[in-house]
Amino acid sequence: MKLSTKNILLLLCLGGLFQACGVFFSPPAGVEYQSVIGEVTATEKDFKKLPKPQEPIVVGVYKFRDQTGQYKASATGANWSTAVPQGLTTILIKSLEDSKWFAPIERENIGNLLNERQIIRTTRQEYTNGQAKETLAPLLFAGILLEGGVISYDTNILTGGAGARYFGIGGSTEYRQDRITVYLRAVSTNSGKILKTIYTSKTILSQSVNASMFRYVDTERLMEAEVGVTNNEPVQMAVSEAINKAVYLLILEGIKDNVWNATNQDKSKADALLAEYTKEVAESTKRIPGKGDWDSNRRAKFSIGASVTANSLRGDYAPSTSQFGASGNFKYLFSDHFSLNAAYGYQNLSSDRYFKAQFTSLELDLEYLMLPFNNFTPYFSAGLGSFENITSKKGKIQLKSQFGAGLEYMVSPSVGIRGFGKYHVGFTDDWDEVISGKRNDHFLQFGMGVQVYLGK
C-alpha cells in the first residue's frame, strides 16, 4: 500500500510529537530514585540568626494536634485522607531541637518510656539477686509545656486562571491558594500560667499549565494533542514552615518579655532581631487574607513601559501575514484595581503579496488588575484609539476601539513582565485601502513587554 505525501508528513509530525512529549512521561524536575535528606525550609534557616540562650529550656509536648478535622478535597467523591499531616508533634519537636533554645523531652509516648524503665528495673533485680548496683537516673521534668495545634485549613481562598484558544490551538493556566493556620502556646508547669501564645499562617499554592491542539487535518481525520504540568506545594512543607515560624516567634516574644534570656555576649544580636520583629508585626496588621499579601498596592501609581508585538491583519485581502511592531505606554494607577493607560505604537500590517503598510497608533485604555496585591495577576483592558497609515500618501487618522487581556508578573517591587493579547476593531473598512464585505477592518495583536513602576 502506497502512502500519499500528506499521510507521510502526518506520520512524521505525529512521530515528532510523541518524541517531544516523551520528556513529559517523567516529571520535568526529574525523578529521585534514592532516599534524600529532607529539604530545609526558609523559616528553618531563621534559627541560625538567633542568639544563644543562657541555658536550654526543658519543654514537654504531649500532643500537638490537627484540630481541623478536615479531609482532603476531592472532585470525584469522598476522600477519607486527612488534609493535614498527623505527625505534628514530631515536626514540632524537630523544630524545637533545631532552634537550640529548647531541650524537648519525651511526653507523647510517655507510657512506652515508663514501661521500658520498669523492664530495666525488673531485669536488674532478677539477675543481681535484688542487689542492683546501678539505679536509673531520674526523668527530667518540663518547666514549660507546649500546647496548640493546626486550627484551620482553608481551601480555595484564592483561585483563578487565564487561557486563550485560536483555531483549535490554545493554552491555559490555573492556580489555587489554600491556607493553614497554627497556634502555639507556652504554659508554665509551676503555676499553670500561659506565658505566651503565638499565631502563624502559611499559604499553599497549586499551579497548572496546559496546552492543547484540536484540528481537522482532513475531511474525516482529526488531530488532537495536549501537554501539561501541575505543581502542588507539599502540605507537610507548609506545616513545617508554619511551625518553625511559630517557634522562632515564641523565642523572640520570650526574650522581649524576659521569660527567658540570651547570653550577655549576644544581647546586641537579640535587640536587632527584636527591632526586626517589631517592624514585621507592624506590617502584618496590613495583611488581608484572601486578597494577597498586603493592604497596600505593590505597584506604584505611575509607570512607564515598552513592548514588542506581533500583528495579524484581518482585512479584505487574504491570507494575512504576521508582522512585528512596538509600543510604549504611560500608566496611572488611580485605585487598587483600575488604571488609565496611554500608549503610542508603531505597527506593521500586511496581507500576502497584496498589501503592506506601516501604521502609528494612539490608545487610551481603562485597565483592570484582578489581583493587585499579588506579584502575579491577570488583567483586562478596553478603550479607544486612533490609527494612521504613514506609508500611504492618502493616510488619514481613523478611530478604532480595542480590548484585551494579559498577565503581569512582578520580578521586583518596581519591574513587571507582561504578556498580552489585544483585538483592535476599526470604525471603517479602508485600512488596507479596499472596501469590501460587511465587516470593518481589524487586527489581532500579541505582545510581550516590561513595565517599570516609578516611586513607591
Automatic annotation (TrEMBL):
Keywords: Cell membrane, Lipoprotein, Membrane, Palmitate, Signal. It comes from the Bacteria. Gene3D superfamilies: 2.40.160.20, ABC-type transport auxiliary lipoprotein component (3.40.50.10610). The keyword Signal applies. InterPro entries: Beta-barrel_OMP (IPR027385), Curli_assmbl/transp-comp_CsgG (IPR005534), OMP/PagP_B-barrel (IPR011250). The keyword Ribosomal protein does not apply. It holds the Pfam family CsgG. Residues 1-25 form the signal peptide. Residues 298-424 form the Outer membrane protein beta-barrel domain. PANTHER family: CURLI PRODUCTION ASSEMBLY/TRANSPORT COMPONENT CSGG (PTHR41164), CURLI PRODUCTION ASSEMBLY_TRANSPORT COMPONENT CSGG (PTHR41164:SF1). This is Outer membrane beta-barrel protein. It comes from Paenimyroides aestuarii.
